[in-house]
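Service request form, structural biology core

Requester: graduate student, group of Dr. S.
Request type: structure prediction, single chain
Budget code: on file
Notes: please return the result as structure tokens.

Sequence provided:
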Amino acid sequence: MEKEGLSGIITVILIILISIIGISIIWLFVQPAIVDILGKGGDGGEYNRFVSCTDLNLEAESCFYNETDVEVLVSRGPGSQAIDNLVFQFPDNVFSLNQGEGSIPGEFGSSSVRFSISLFSIIPENVKATAILDSGQACQFDDLPVRCEPEGTLSFECGNGICEPGENELTCPQDCQG
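Core staff response, request fulfilled:
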């Protein structure tokens, strides 16, 4: 009778060992995918990089051109991620901030970037903007393109006390304070 009880214990131990070995084998195949998604060390992983870009809420607000320049107003939402560069996508060209004159907007800020009209083969119809983070990761162009208009074709009235579409703190500070 004692032998029957002993074989039951051995059976349970063998089942536990086989389960542990099976889980270990599965973990060997699943772990690289998890590390790639969540990241290891300081790289942040794909998920964290996606969240970083989404939190920035970087977009082109307006685009105006004249005989010498194309000016793009870029705004940024929340997010303390460090931005290394800005990239602007026009229908026939892609330019970085380094090819123009301007600065990277701070958190909840906006800035104006000017490009020489000589960089363009044709007058640009629209523009999209995105960021390249300090990690070297480029965010996607996920905002809608903003139409480029001739300078002086503003469709709003600055100074009427209403912050209308197309106005912002830079173009009409008296209407768009705070």
